[in-house]
Each structure stands twice: as C-alpha cells, then as structure tokens.
Design a protein that fits this description.
The complex is a heterodimer.
Chain A lengths: L10 E4 L2 E2 L2 E2 L1 H17 L3 E7 L6 H6 L4 E6 L8 H15 L3 E5 L2 H13 L4 E5 L1 E4 L6 E6 L5 E6 L6 E5 L16 E4 L12 E7 L12 E5 L6 H14 L2 E4 L1 H5 L20 E5 L5 H4 L7 E6 L6 H4 L2 E4 L2 H25 L1
Parallel strand pairs in A: 1-4, 1-6, 4-5, 5-12, 6-11, 7-11, 14-15, 14-16, 16-17, 17-18
Antiparallel strand pairs in A: 2-3, 8-9, 9-10
Helix pairs in contact in A: 3-4, 5-9
Chain B lengths: L1 E6 L1 E3 L5 E2 L6 E2 L5 E3 L1 H17 L2 E7 L5 H10 L3 E5 L9 H14 L5 E5 L10 H8 L4 E11 L2 E8 L2 E8 L2 E5 L11 H9 L3 E4 L19 E7 L8 E2 L4 H14 L4
Parallel strand pairs in B: 1-6, 1-8, 6-7, 7-13, 8-12, 9-12
Antiparallel strand pairs in B: 2-5, 3-4, 9-10, 10-11
The chains are: A alpha/beta, B alpha/beta.
C-alpha cells in the first residue's frame, strides 16, 4: 500500500482467540512487539476481532498493548478470512501501521498472506526471531530454511506495512502486568452477513483427550529408530509414566505411525518443554529446529555419532528397545514403592 | 466443472546439504520433483472431474525444466498444461509469483475452482493460495481434507489445530489441499508415454500475460532474503550415561529426580 515508510507508525498484533481465551502466541507477540516498539519509538496496537470479546482487552494491555482496537460484531463470531481481511486492511489503509504481526497458526497462515496481497506488500512467514535494524528501522525477520541447517534474514525494505507470521513458542512469554494502562477503541463493522461468501457450517474439535504438544511441560519424542506403530505405543507408556506428551519427527508421521498433530520441527510444532527425551532420533535440523530450546534434552540412540548428541544434555547410546523398557520398569518400581510407602503412612 | 490447478517443481530437499568445511551448498544428487502435496491436488481435481465432468488446466511457474512437473500432471490426467517461464519471472517472492499465476489464470477461459497445495516443500510459506485468491477476488477455503460439491455449492473439511471446520462457499472459489485429502493414483505406463509423446506443454512469457511486467519476478517482489547463515545446533557437552540398560535407566531417573523433572 504505502511506499512511504516515513509516514507509517505503529506495530499491530492481530489477536487470535478461542472460546474467549487469547492464544498464547498472541500474548507472546504483544510482549515482543512492545520491545520492538521501544526500538522504533512507537506504539503497539492489539487488533481484537470477534463477538463479545471486549472483556479480553484488559489482558492484552497487561501483556504489552498500548491500544486495543476492537471489532465486536455477530459477523465476526467465527474466524473467516474475508471478514478479518476487510477489517484489518481497511483500518491499515487509514492508519498506516509500520508492522503487522500474526501467529503462524492455521488462522495466521490463512490470513496474513491474504492481507499482504490486499495491501500489496510483503509477507514473511514462520519466523523464529524478530529484530529491528538500527540503521534503517527495518524489521528483520529470521526464519529457518526448511530441510537445511541454514537460517535466513528476510526484510521488506520498501513497501509497508511489513507483515510477518511468527511461530508459536519461539518467543518467551513476558509476564502479565496488571498495572499497565492502555486505551480501548472500537471499530465499526460495516459488513453484512449476506455479503460474506464463506459460511461456517460446523466446528469440530477432535483433539480433546490430550493437551497440545506446544504447551507440554515434558515431551517424549520418537524418530525412525522407533521402528513402527508398536514402538510408539512403548513411547506412550513411558510418556504416561512421566506425565509427558508424545511427539515425533517427520518420517514416523509420513509413515503413518503417529498423527501429524504430534510432529515437532520445521514443518511441525515448536516446543520448549522443561524435559525432552528423544528416542531413536538422529537430530536432523528438520526436527531439532523445533525443540532446540527445550530446557533439558535427553537423547537415546544406538549411533554414538548421531547429531542429537551434539546438543543433548544427557545421552544414552544403545538400543531403545532395551533401554526404554528398562526405564519404564524402573519408573513403575518407583511408583509402586511410593504407593507402598503411602499405604504404610 | 472447470478446474485450474497450480503446481510447482521443487528440489528434493533432503538431498541438499551444506558443506561445513568449504561453506558451499552441496547440490549434487538433488533432483527436481513435483511438490509432494501437488500430486494430491491433481488427484482431487481428477476426482471432481470424474464426478461432475469438466476440464482441468495445470499451471506452473518455473524454469524450462519445470515442464517435467507438468508432464507428470498430464500423465496423471490433466487436460492442459501451461508453463510460465521467462526471465522476467525469475527471483520472484510469493507475492510476485501470485501475480504471475493469477494473471495467467485470468487468461484461462472459465473456471469454477482453483486448487493449490497447502504449501510447497521448499518454501513452506503457504502464501500462494491465499494471495492468488485475493488477486482474483475469490473466497478461499484453505487446508482442505475433503471437498464435496453440492449443487452450486462447495463444502470442505478444513483442518485446524484441534480438529476441523466445515466451510461452505459458492463458485468460483480457491481451495488449498492437505496431503490427507486423497491417495493419488499411479498413472499407467501408457498415459505417462502419452504425456511425453502426444501432449504439449504451452509456454507463456511475461508479455503473454498482458500485465505490467514490473509486478513479476525480482522487481515485483517486496521481500528480500538478506543473510544466510548456519544455524548453530550445538549446546555444551553431553553427559553420556554408561552401563547396561538397567543401570542407565537408574542413572537417568536419578538425574530427573535431582532436577525435579519426575
């Protein structure tokens, strides 16, 4: 839209929410946006679109928004590309933001490129790091090259706004400051339901039994070394004893041993649990880029030269089919003795 | 039911390495293939044609050798193949690519559905579907795990983080497909031979698209890649736990306890 970068002011964060709860990635982005805004000497606006969402504004201010722009209307009840694109773009054309951030979620990945095409500007996707070039004030968005251990910095030097999607979990969440002050303004929604081309017939949640991988405190992940579906059953047993969630590298997902929802890495999820145990995983960048920030990394692999040992904290070299059952056995023994102890007490 | 499919030729990514000693990209052994999800895109188009009749046009932008990807599409059964190949398209980011593709689609007679893959295996941005939809002012239905046509409406099952949504729109529409939408057919030897012997791949240049060529290629690209560097994936030193499985299991649990991770 605008080729005149001078005129553009402000960082916008498009807020994603579900069942009245803000997506964690949106809160991560507010904190990160606030830090970048300091470097630019500008403000952070949260763009909150939905139906009956006004109550969420306070939290957004507490995480870093200076202003919350709310579009609250029945047509916004469900996320729809055209509704969100219209609201964000119309406002952006009037107010000329410098930067717009979206989470690299299903919604963000659907919406950000559409908004970028509407505003005739660039979109930088799946970023893992954000910074401002101090020389010229450009946003520098870092992303991994898929399938290689290379990273690249992407910029959008001329056109504005600079649009980027950022992967959930790569930015550390800042703490909530309930004392922060901010403004709340309302945006009129002129769209009518009959003008909207896409209708949401139904929304079905199928992942209800497990909590998502990206929020897990502990993760047990398996690679090709796990061997087959039964191998993943063994990992599930270990995970259950540890209170962990099971994850996987690309190939077991491609083989159909485990669902796509469990995939960690460049084409999967980014995690930063307190404990990560990698079983039969070589440590190729496609996977490791999604787990490298885990606090404690344990690797079990029969190849002592596997890359994963280069960034693991603890390693066990050997056959996972002997080692994991031994760990399971040991954990059960401990649980039993705890139980016995409880009975005695 | 006239369908346009947008496909892409990609490097077989896993073959490309990085020589840490010389600092150069190792390209040997890296062959070009049809973007994996695009086989599912073509299959989805063919299934719709089988159910509702119609004509399928496959479009790809790329260098001359991208013709190979279109031959593969012809072998699977698309009716027409168009390659956008010209120096003016070179160096395009996703927006400039979407400009070229949407300009080409405008020249295709009439279409009811455009199907793109959810993302390419090399760029993995997933931009082109939504951007083409915007440039053609079409509704977009992304991440489809199923497509159903009902009278004048199309329904899709859209994959989400925690399940799926059922979305409905009327024609024309742009859909992006997930891999699990179908199992692509393996074309017969005969139809592969036909694709190479009897069928043609039309090549369109920038000027054929009747467009402001400043929107194509490097010139039309708002984004640039600045630095490329090796991602350091090395932490400190690893502590290897030694002994029989039973012994290592005990040591590991000891450590986890100590670090309050049990």
């Amino acid at each position: 839209m605008s080729d005149n970068a001078e005129k553009c002011k402000g960082i916008w964060v498009v807020i994603e929410h579900r069942h009245g709860e803000t997506a964690k990635v949106s809160l991560e982005l507010l904190g990160e946006g606030r830090g970048l805004a300091d470097k630019l000497g500008t403000n952070v606006n949260a763009i909150l679109i939905g139906e009956n969402v006004t109550a969420m504004a306070e939290e957004l201010i507490g995480y870093g928004a200076d202003k919350v722009i709310i579009a609250d209307d029945p047509v916004c009840k469900h996320y729809r590309t055209e509704v969100y694109t219209d609201i964000i773009s119309e406002r952006a054309l009037r107010e000329n933001p410098e930067i717009i951030f979206f989470g690299a979620t299903c919604i963000g990945r659907d919406l950000a490129p559409r908004v970028s095409a509407r505003l005739n500007t660039g979109c930088m996707s799946d970023c893992t790091k954000l910074d401002i070039d101090e020389e010229n004030g450009h946003l520098v968005a870092t992303k991994p090259f898929f399938g290689r251990d290379l990273m690249t910095d992407i910029i959008c030097p001329v056109r504005r706004p600079q649009i980027a999607t950022i992967r959930p979990g790569v930015i550390e969440l800042k703490s909530l400051d309930r004392q922060r002050h901010g403004k709340v303004v309302f945006s009129n929604v002129s769209l009518k339901e009959e003008d909207i081309k896409v209708k949401v017939v139904d929304t079905i949640s199928t992942v209800s039994d497990i909590f998502p991988l990206e929020l897990a405190d502990k993760v047990v992940a398996g690679g090709m070394g796990v061997g087959d579906k039964d191998g993943f059953e063994m990992l599930r047993e270990l995970a259950a004893l540890l209170g962990a969630v099971v994850g996987a590298t690309n190939l077991p997902v491609d083989e159909g041993w485990i669902s796509e929802d469990n995939k960690i890495g460049q084409t999967g999820k980014t995690i930063r649990p307190r404990l990560y145990i990698g079983c039969g995983i070589s440590g190729a960048v496609q996977h490791s880029a999604g787990m490298i920030d885990s606090e404690v990394i344990v690797a079990i692999n029969n190849d002592p030269d596997a890359d994963i040992f280069k960034f693991a904290d603890y390693g066990i070299v050997g056959d996972i089919n002997e080692i994991i059952p031994a760990i399971i056995k040991e954990l059960k023994k401990q649980k039993n003795s705890e139980r016995d102890l409880n009975q005695i007490l | 039911m006239n369908i346009v499919v947008c496909i892409k030729q990609v490097p077989e990514t896993y073959d490309i390495g990085w020589d840490k000693k010389t600092g150069s990209l190792l390209r040997q052994g890296s062959s070009a293939i049809l973007n994996p999800v695009d086989k599912h895109v073509i299959e989805a188009a063919i299934q719709l044609r089988e159910g509702h009749g119609g004509f399928i046009t496959a479009i790809s932008m790329g260098p001359d050798q991208a013709e190979e990807a279109l031959r593969e599409a012809l072998g699977m059964g698309v009716d027409r193949a168009i390659l956008l190949s010209d120096r003016v398209f070179a160096g395009a980011d996703t927006l400039a690519t979407s400009y070229a593709l949407s300009s080409a689609i405008k020249k295709v007679d009439r279409f009811d559905i455009i199907i793109c893959g959810k993302e390419s295996s090399d760029g993995v941005t997933g931009h082109v579907g939504p951007q083409v939809a915007e440039l053609l002012n079409l509704p977009q239905l992304t991440n489809a795990m199923e497509i159903t046509i009902r009278k004048n409406e199309v329904l899709i099952k859209q994959k989400t983080e925690d399940g799926y949504r059922l979305l409905k729109a009327s024609f024309p529409v742009l859909i992006t497909a997930e891999k699990n939408i179908n199992q692509p057919r393996i074309p017969s030897m005969e139809s592969i031979m036909d694709a190479y012997r009897d069928k043609t791949v039309d090549v369109w240049k920038g000027e054929d698209l009747n467009n402001n060529t400043g929107q194509f290629g490097l010139k039309g690209s708002p984004t640039q890649s600045k630095n490329i560097y090796i991602r350091k994936l090395e932490k400190g030193t690893v502590e290897i736990l030694k002994g029989e499985p039973g012994v290592t299991a005990k040591s590991l649990i000891g450590i986890l306890k100590e670090r309050d991770l049990l």
